[in-house]
Amino acid sequence: MQAEDRTRLHVGVTGSGSDAVVLSGGPGCVHYLEHDDIAPRGMRACYALDHPSRVRAVVGVAGHGLHKDRTWSQTYEALKHTEPKIDIDWNPMVHQALSESFVEWIHGSDLLRRLADCRVPMTIVAAEHDIRPSWPLRQLAALVKQGVFVEVSGVPYDLWSTHPEVWVDVVTNACIAPADQRL
After folding, report:
1. Which residues contact 23 (CB under 8 A, 6 or more apart)?
2. Shortest CA distance to 183 belongs to which of 18, 54, 57?
3. Is residue 43 part of a domain?
4. Is 83 in contact with 158 (CB distance < 8 Å)?
5. Domain span at 57
6. Is 6 inside a domain boundary?
7. What pLDDT does residue 61 have?
């Protein structure tokens, strides 16, 4: 698939049922969530562009938050050696592009206003044993009108790999939760 700016994107389809757009980020690999065994139940996970006007809800799992904070980074750097080693195909060019795009996005002068005004329900999920501090995710959930913060007990950051059954339950439940329960 090609985006409007001619950037080539990978689009994969897995699962069955209603559509759920799944965008993977951090590790610099866009394919690691494309497996039937971790697709949200009753949904088809498509890897594609995000179309905000068509979004019923956003579910963010083990994200970064809206910051470039030194204390957060120091905590991560000091503890990253304690994380389980997950074998994924890491691409430094993809990682660099994601990092540059993220920095550009968080520097947008209207980002916080647009998030605060956004009416799309958002569930922001953190893993209890993620070595990265969760305060940025808590802030994001508090900022959005229909934001909810959820901490998943007993799992690390890479729960999609270490605890796939928990990943499926969390993502499925967050995707199917009625919007009126998020108010």
Report:
1. 47, 50
2. 57
3. yes
4. yes
5. 13-182
6. no
7. 82
